[in-house]
Amino acid sequence: MNERKKSSFTSFLFVLPYLTMFILFLAIPLFYGIFISLHDWNLISPNRPFVGLANYTEIFNSNSTAHELFFSGLWNTFQFVLYSVPLLVVIGLGLAMLVNSLPEKIRFLFRTAYFIPYSISVSVVAILWLWMLDTNSGLVNQTLIKLGLDSIPWLTKIPFAWVSIVIATLWWTIGFNMIIFINALNEVPEEMYEAADIDGASSWERFLHITLPTIRPVMLFVLITSTIASFNIYGQPYLMTRGGPGDSTEVLLMGIVEQAFELRQLGSASAMAVLMSLIIVGISLIQLKVTNRPEKEAKE
Q1: Nearest to 133 by CA among 120, 148, 152, 159
Q2: Whole-angstrom Cα distance, residue 70 to residue 13?
Q3: CA-based diameter of the chain, in Å?
Q4: 206 CB contacts (<8 Å, ≥6 apart)?
Q5: What average pLDDT is seen over the chain?
Q6: Other residues' Cβ atoms within 10 Å of the Cβ of residue 147
Q7: Would you state the pLDDT for residue 50?
Q8: Considering only 49-53, 133-137, 248-252, which range has the smallest mean pLDDT?
Q9: Which pLDDT belongs to residue 291?
Q10: Taken in order 153, 154, 155, 161, is the CA torsion positive or negative?
Q11: Model confidence at 293, in pLDDT bands (50, 70, 90)?
Q12: Is the model's pLDDT at 145 over the cut of 70?
């Protein structure tokens, strides 16, 4: 075996574990889900006839349960994305800059402290924030009452239910974005800041004209991954509010699970999941195009 073939084989061995996991846990489930969405797949019936796009058209039939679950859940999911993603990006970057400005000796303590919640499971996060925000006996409301203030229905009324879910999500996941931004900030050449200082640039001008343009690719990555993660929200509203009050925080994944396992209509639930995936891909492509446009215009 010559050196070139040996190098190619070695590279393939490095890729093989990821490729195997990709095929087993992403590619096969994806195509199997599309296959199920083309059939009348009822969990309690052995007959699963091919129905083509009927499950997809049912979603757009205003008289169907799938229509109500899909579009109500989609609207609630869009709300959460709009509330959470800007905060995940802006606060993540702000924390990264704050931690990066600390002395090296204590910097790692704050990085660790902010990142630790990211390693906790969603069930633990939900239990913790339920204990904090319970209307009657939660720590936050008990503190407010002792201060002579009225208690807040954090989990039982809108908009407080959304506020609670967003706060819990930020606390849980902001450390990941912060670490990504810290790594990006450390890659900004120090010479650029020194040149800006010589020219008399202010801190805001340095941030606007040096930091942001340099970390633009990383910011795009954080924006897209935060959007995808927020669009796939399930555990926080399911465990904290049960989709309430009413169905105002019942997100799309909760509707898909209900259609699949409570109503036992796995075919239409798979069609809902496929449409959800297409929406996520579409939003990601739009974000990629919009955020790259200023860079292209600058080059022209």
Answers
A1: 152
A2: 42
A3: 80
A4: 193, 196, 197
A5: 91
A6: 7
A7: 95
A8: 133-137
A9: 75
A10: positive
A11: low
A12: yes
Q: Is the pLDDT of residue 258 over 80?
A: yes
Q: Tell me which residue has tokens 């926080």.
A: 236
CA dihedral 254, 255, 257, 258 (to 10 degrees): 120
Query: Which amino acid is it at 205?
Result: E
φ and ψ of 41, to 5 deg: -105, 90
Phi, psi dihedrals of residue 233, rounded to the nearest 5°:
-60, 140
On whether the pTM is more than 0.70, the answer is yes
- The rounded distance, in Å, linking the Cα atoms of 277 and 275 is 5
Residue 266, C-beta contacts closer than 8 angstroms, at least 6 positions apart: 36, 41, 42, 43, 260
CA atoms within 13 A of residue 120's CA, in its CB half-sphere: 22
pLDDT of residue 295: 53
Band the pLDDT of 8: cuts 50, 70, 90: confident
Phi and psi, residue 39, nearest 5°: -130, 155
Token digits of residue 59? 């979603």
Which position has the token pair 């699963």? 48
User: Which tens digits make up the pLDDT trace of 207-246?
Assistant: 999 999 999 999 999 999 999 999 999 999 999 999 999 9
Helices (H) and strands (E) in the chain, counts: 15, 0
| Paired strand residues for 265 | 42
Single-letter code of the amino acid located at 2: N
151 vs 195: CA distance, rounded Å: 53
pLDDT the model gives residue 44 = 84
Residue length, the chain?
300
Listing DSSP states for 166-225 in one string gives: HHHHHHHHHHHHHHHHHHHHHTS-HHHHHHHHHTT--HHHHIIIIIHHHTHHHHHHHHHH
Q: Taken in order 167, 168, 170, 174, is the CA torsion positive or negative? A: positive
